[in-house]
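Bumping with the actual sequence this time:
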Amino acid sequence: AALQALKRKKRYEKQLSQIDGTLSTIEFQREALENSHTNTEVLKNMGYAAQAMKKVHENMDLNKIDDLMQDITEQQDVAQEISDAISNRAAFGDEFDEDELMAELEELEQEELNKGMRDVRLPSVPSTSLPSRPGKLTACHFTFLMIKPCSSTRKRAEDEDEMKRLAAWAS
């Protein structure tokens, strides 16, 4: 009985395998049919679109379109010329030589530059001498390194003001 049950089990497993293979084949065929149907619909719609485009374009002539585009371009050019003519000032004897105007502008700019340079005060040169050897520093040098001025704070403020004016002038 156990042997019969084992044979029956093997037979059922073989049948199950065959049924599974058949189902896989049927599923593959169903997907192929769906894809074919989709492709057919797409081609049919593309045909409709081609016919519609052909119907729309049968009344159009490329030469007529080129002529129309040239006419539009010419009219745009005419409109631009009219706009330019209207927007340009009429010359009523007040024409100036461009070179003379540029020379006068450069002269004014140079005068302004010279005036600004006269008002610039440069900071004074430090009165202390540098140490004779790099290793020997004085107390004044240490305070300088700690950003504490050896000279009066008023002098430093004046120098900072000068630097600000120079920066403002330069920009």
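The tokens above came from a reply further down the thread. The two ends are 108 Å apart (CA to CA).
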